Amino acid sequence: MEQNKVVGLHKEKHAKTKISSVRPFSHIAQEHMLPVVVHEFVVAGAEFPVVFVKDQQTERFQPVVLLGLASQQNLMLVDDKWQAMYVPRVVRNYPLVLVQEAPESDRLMVAIDEASERVNEAEGFPLFNDDGSESEFLTVRKQQMGEYVDYAQMTQVFMEKLKSLGLLKEQVLTVTINEEKRNINGIHMVDDQKLNELSDETFLELRKLGYLTAIYAHLMSLQHTQKLVQKLAEREEAAKA
Q1: How far apart are CA 124 and CA 127, in angstroms?
Q2: How far apart are CA 232 and CA 118, in angstroms?
Q3: Closest Cα to residue 217, out of 35, 38, 84, 64?
Q4: Whether the Cβ atoms of residue 218 and residue 189 lie closer than 8 Å to each other
Q5: Angle CA 144–55–211, to nearest 5
């Protein structure tokens, strides 16, 4: 796969640029997890396991949906077709992305990954109108990306709260695929025992913050790990055939 070539979006340079809708998921074909925001837990958790991973350098936790059970394994993508109803927000706007205007800068600007096979001048959604103004397609995408940044910040506050209450525990997921046991490491989840031991006051605070819905959506989503196990077993059986 060609390396990313992310450049700032300019109406002169990209006046004729279009984004085609061909193979919209090719850029995540080898991703076994995708970041999600807390606002997605209920809908994403209805189809995927929602778990937490820890950045060893910053000690920060990030919620993710599991798409596979090993690195570079995406079981939710078959022949470039997405095998679920819900598409996580993080992948919807690519090849448009937000990047820092400059190192250390808080300001973000819209950029485009020119290495994407979907970026061309022949077909697809134009980014700019003939008069140089932003197309409706671009306006909607920019709005969604801005929303995602806000949601990501709220998600970080949510994660800090869980961390401060000691509600996160590391868990080795052990799955059985075609009678062979495999361990998945580096996964964190909410410790439901500690959740039940919280004081009434703290529990009520979580409810008022709207966090309980997300916590329960995460805990219930863990059952979907079994769905990934089944998909992997089928894929391995098919490979043997």
Answers
A1: 9
A2: 29
A3: 38
A4: yes
A5: 55
- The two tokens of residue 201 are 């006051």
H-helix or E-strand spanning residue 212: helix 211-221
Look-up: residue for tokens 């500690």? 194
Q: What is the rounded distance in angstroms from the CA atom of residue 72 to the CA atom of residue 31?
A: 5
Backbone φ and ψ for 126, nearest 5 degrees, come out as -70, 150
Tell me whether residue 98 is exposed, middle or buried, using C-beta atoms within 10 angstroms of its C-beta: 0 to 12, 13 to 18, 19 or more. middle
Give residue 92's pLDDT: 94
**pLDDT band at residue 3 under the 50/70/90 scheme:** low
Residue of 91, 98, 38, 97 lying closest to 67 (CA atoms): 91
pTM: 0.91
pLDDT tens digits, 11-57: 999 999 999 999 999 999 999 999 999 999 999 999 999 999 999 89
* Maximum distance among all Cα pairs of the chain, rounded to whole angstroms: 62
Task: Show the tokens assigned to 91.
Answer: 């992948």
Burial of 135 (0-12, 13-18, 19+ CB in 10 A): middle
- Rounded Cα–Cα distance for residues 63 and 51 (Å): 6
